[in-house]
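Supplementary Data S3. Sequence and structure tokens for construct A.
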Amino acid sequence: MFDAGTFLDASLLVAMGISLVAGVLSFLSPCVLPVVPPYLAYMGGVSVTQMEGESSARGKVFLSAVFFVLGLSTVFLLLGFAFSAAGRLFLSFQDVAITIAGVIIIIFGLHFIGIFRIPFLNREARIDAGDQGGSAFGAYLLGLAFAFGWTPCLGPVLGAILGLAASEADMAKGTLLLAVYAIGLGLPFLLVAAFFPRLKGPMNWLKRHMRTVEKLSGTLLLIVGILMLTGKFSDISFWLLETFPGLATLG
């Protein structure tokens, strides 16, 4: 029988929080945020101008956005399952794998902060899902294409979450981490689709501060990498349990 108390421990809650923040930062990244309005408009079979002024157009866009998010979530859930299964399969080599993953994630973090630049991380491979604008199936295909095609750009942040999934060596927990990441990335798409006129101003402001977003992403990667190298996730779990004793009932 499934035991929620054993499954949801303080360490997993920390990893889930990191996954959620990572998903939001992925949405705010320079290769995602600027193309959100035209992508949503294309998926809904409307123009960006119609998205601004017609509620019926936003309804079509929102429905397409739901299927788009389902598409990208499909890929992330499969990745979470695969990486956590790999972590379980190679459990005897897990410490070495986590150390290597931690070093790589730190290198990615230094790239985003600007200490040095890794050229291939500055481009993304955009996959064309064909002339499917305006259909739910087309939006789902675009979600699949988005998850695969933006890997060079999303890769460092996504890689950190996949590293956490592999370190869990538990397929259910690893898949949950990627589901939370998908929520962090997908929910903003739905909010923009539903409230585009109101969010247009904040989105423009964020576009002007992309460098800050990159530095925040780099800082998150550095933290995750250091935690993986030093094995400090358990220390954070203990701190949470001391600060919030009620969490002790979870695990």
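Construct B, processed identically:
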Amino acid sequence: MIAQWVAGLRLNTRSGVNCWRDYYQLTKPKVVMLLLLTALVGMCLASENMLPFSLFVVALTGIGMLASAAAVINHVVDRGIDGRMARTQNRPVVSGKVSPAQAYMFSAVLAVIGFALLYFWVNALTAWLTLTSLMIYAFIYTLFLKRATPQNIVIGGLAGAAPPLLGWTAVTGQLHAHALLLVLIIFTWTPPHFWALAINRHKDYARANVPMLSVTHGIEFTKTAVLLYTLLLSLVCLLPYLVGMSGLIYLMGSSVLNAGFLYYALCLKCHDGIKYAMPTFRYSIVHLMLLFVFLLTDHYAMWSL
């Protein structure tokens, strides 16, 4: 099987560079990079000292490889749905640039190497938690929840919320309430982030027969859900300051970011149509990225005092 997969890399009808790009695209690199940022912050918050460079590299590599493996499985399992959606119809597996068998083998290689790195060079807890996240996303969410309920992204979002916990356990080898608080932030952020996209792509999801909230309950209902979850997120984002996990830098930064998210959610709710759906979706990505940057900045500012 491995020989066939390697041969597939070489015998692709297009150039070797483009073939490499197809496999790279399968890993959803932009999503994985955002996940790794949250994992890095989890690692840094778990320690008051500088992280050993070897731990930093091995842990993020292992987490990234397992996250990438889950993304590849998602491409294969969802190829029928992706082929009916304009946003995803040119993905490598859908378009035939990479066969399902080649993709599965690629995923297996990533998963085995990633798990081995975490298990033997980080700790067993992080390895098993990361593998569990892969299973939840690649199988429970993609195979079942996505096709079964409009609450799919709420329940399945737990897998995408795990990276800061994984980063924390990579350093300490233990679970901690502060790490779970970081998970809660991403868990609460996920619905308004994804439902904004679902509003913009509601016709695609309807055509693919995927029960997203915008399809089953309508666009206006989904707009209200985005606004309410954004309000809830603003409250959850206060918790790191309230429990003494972070200081004023984080409080001020997160307050500005949350105000911006609320602004976009209100614009989405109060205006007809879907004009503000994609701006809200794009802002949500910036929101999460900068929120964790503020957490990191605040941590090292407090540490230096």
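DSSP finds 16 helices and no strands in the chain. The first helix runs from residue 2 to 10.
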